[in-house]
Design goal:
Rossmann fold, 2 domains, 232 residues, 8 helices
Length: 232
């Protein structure tokens, strides 16, 4: 589904923040993206959700090299990607229900289907009693759950989440991770950026590890074996 070949990214005339990035993510895979603060995780995520273009190298998504996409094709690609941003990016003038329903309305789904899907999902994330509330009236954790619900309501082909459990208590965080697991079993490719080592240890998926702009891929089998051998 995704292939990066010798990808580099720099802002302006500064040094590269990502350097010679190479990896392939198969359709239906699940990866954690980790690394110290400032390692380039947000920059890599922005390339994955097509928020910016690389300054060198090739990025292939859904079988097509992204640098040749025109504006209409780019919009079509983005409709296949669900994104949970760290700053949520909810629309402040729209209710919780309408924020979550927005991707379905963009796809011209009928209102009966929208109501059914959105109501069920909001109940599942514990916000069924807040669907008419505006984002500003919610806590940070509640806003985060709205952002997650919006990202997954149309079952995207690719889900990218930046610290999706960062503002949530352990119970809600595990509940949402189990939802991500269900989506993954249904075929969604998932990449979660996180600093939470306990979370990564619990679920044991492969890891993309960024450090000073360079990346290593650590698959789940190697990680489990290294843990058994006492490397971690």
């Amino acid at each position: 589904m995704i292939k990066f070949e010798h990808v580099g990214l720099r802002y302006g005339i500064g040094p590269e923040v990502l350097s010679d990035i190479n990896f392939t993510l198969e359709a239906g895979s699940f990866h954690f993206l980790s690394g110290p603060s400032g390692a380039g995780k947000s920059s890599l995520m922005s390339l994955l959700y097509l928020g910016r273009r690389q300054t060198r190298g090739l990025v292939t998504m859904f079988g097509q090299e992204t640098s040749v996409l025109d504006r209409e094709q780019m919009a079509s690609f983005r409709q296949r990607i669900g994104v949970v941003f760290q700053d949520f990016r909810l629309l402040p003038h729209m209710s919780v229900f309408d924020n979550v329903a927005l991707p379905l309305r963009i796809l011209n789904k009928n209102e009966k289907e929208i109501r059914s899907n959105v109501n069920e999902l909001l109940d599942w994330v514990g916000l069924g009693d807040h669907m008419r509330a505006l984002p500003a009236t919610l806590s940070g954790g509640q806003q985060q759950r709205v952002a997650i619900a919006r990202a997954i309501v149309d079952r995207p082909k690719l889900l990218l989440a930046d610290e999706p459990t960062g503002n949530l208590d352990d119970e809600i965080g595990m509940r949402l991770m189990n939802l991500f697991e269900q989506l993954n079993r249904m075929g969604t490719t998932i990449v979660i950026a996180t600093h939470n080592h306990a979370l990564m240890d619990h679920f044991g998926h492969s890891r993309l590890i960024l450090d000073q702009g360079s990346l290593q891929l650590q698959d789940s089998k190697n990680w489990i074996q290294r843990k058994i051998e006492g490397v971690f």
